[in-house]
Automatic annotation (TrEMBL):
Biased composition (Pro residues): 17-34
Occurrences of domain Thioesterase (ranges): 85-151
Cellular localization per UniProt: Cell projection, Ruffle membrane; Cytoplasm; Membrane
Keyword annotations of the record: Apoptosis, Cell membrane, Cell projection, Cytoplasm, Fatty acid metabolism, Hydrolase, Lipid metabolism, Membrane, Transit peptide
Record membrane topology: Peripheral membrane protein
Spans annotated as Disordered: 1-38
Keyword Isomerase: no
Lineage: Bacteria, Bacillati, Actinomycetota, Actinomycetes, Kitasatosporales
Homology family: Belongs to the THEM4/THEM5 thioesterase family.
Reactions performed catalytically: hexadecanoyl-CoA + H2O = hexadecanoate + CoA + H(+); (5Z,8Z,11Z,14Z)-eicosatetraenoyl-CoA + H2O = (5Z,8Z,11Z,14Z)-eicosatetraenoate + CoA + H(+); (9Z)-octadecenoyl-CoA + H2O = (9Z)-octadecenoate + CoA + H(+); decanoyl-CoA + H2O = decanoate + CoA + H(+)
Xref: Pfam families: 4HBT (PF03061)
Main subcellular location: membrane
Protein name: Acyl-coenzyme A thioesterase THEM4
Length: 204
């Protein structure tokens, strides 16, 4: 069996692509951003993360903060199990992704997750309420850097999950071009959703 490489032979760990580089700056909160305290609602009713129509979804409904931040709550249900009685890790990552994604509303640009790193610090039992918080850490060109944490039991409870993300700004055509045509058609027929989507279009 070949010898395992020694610590010293391992290449230096590169900086994470989800960490803002020195040239990144904190972007301004968009003038059109929802006022602090506003419930951001769902961007798509069938979304696994926020859609009220999704039977097993997380139904995350984030609240805009005063700066470049949002908060949300999510209670783990039996359909979210990985280990018996415990939340599935991938599902917790989804909760982080969804909460981080709602930061789009504060910058008023559509963006999709390019990279998402998650640290699981403690097991999360079914029935736990996670208190989520996400904030923007910088932006450079189309790249938006952000971080999030989920605390158990209360907004000041112990941190159970941490995440860092790199979102990439896209045009609305990203969704119409790549989405399954029958789902896109239904969305285009939905006046409420189109009104929300159009607010992005007039302010690219
Ligand atoms: C009409 C219908 C509208 C309906 C929608 C309405 C509203 C939507 C708006 C807001 C929604 C609000 C809330 C959403 C909430 C939650 C949703 C959760 C978010 C998700 O769950 S979303 C799904 C998962 N997500 C994807 O499905 C992305 C798949 N992917 C791609 O679609 C492409 O990959 C893309 C577009 C990411 C980039 O492609 P591209 O061609 O545009 O750009 P390119 O590759 O040049 O990257 C530009 C610069 O980013 C760097 N870069 C890119 N990726 C990187 C990586 N992974 N690591 C490190 N660096 C990376 C490059 O290195 C370059 O850097 P540099 O500029 O320095 O060269």
């Amino acid at each position: 069996m070949p010898a395992a490489p020694s610590e010293s032979a391992a290449p230096a760990h590169p900086a994470s692509p989800a960490t803002p580089p020195p040239e990144a700056v904190l972007p301004p909160r968009a003038p059109e951003a929802p006022a602090p305290g506003t419930r951001l609602g769902s961007h798509y009713e069938h979304c696994f993360g926020c859609g009220p129509q999704h039977p097993a979804g997380l139904r995350i409904d984030a609240v805009a903060g005063t700066g470049l931040d949002v908060t949300a709550e999510f209670t783990v249900r039996p359909e979210h199990q990985g280990g018996p009685g415990l939340a599935h890790g991938g599902l917790l990552t989804t909760a982080m992704d969804e909460t981080l994604g709602t930061l789009n509303w504060l910058l008023h640009v559509p963006a999709v997750t390019g990279r998402l790193e998650t640290d699981f610090l403690s097991p999360v039992p079914v029935g736990s309420t996670l208190h989520l918080r996400a904030w923007i850490t910088g932006a450079h060109g189309r790249k938006i850097y952000s971080a999030a944490e989920a605390r158990i039991g209360g907004p000041a409870g112990p941190v159970a999950v941490r995440a860092r993300a790199l979102f990439i700004q896209v045009k609305l055509e990203h969704f119409t071009k790549h989405g399954r045509p029958e789902d896109i058609e239904k969305v285009l027929d939905d006046p409420d959703l189109m009104q929300r989507a159009r607010t992005f279009e007039v302010n690219p």
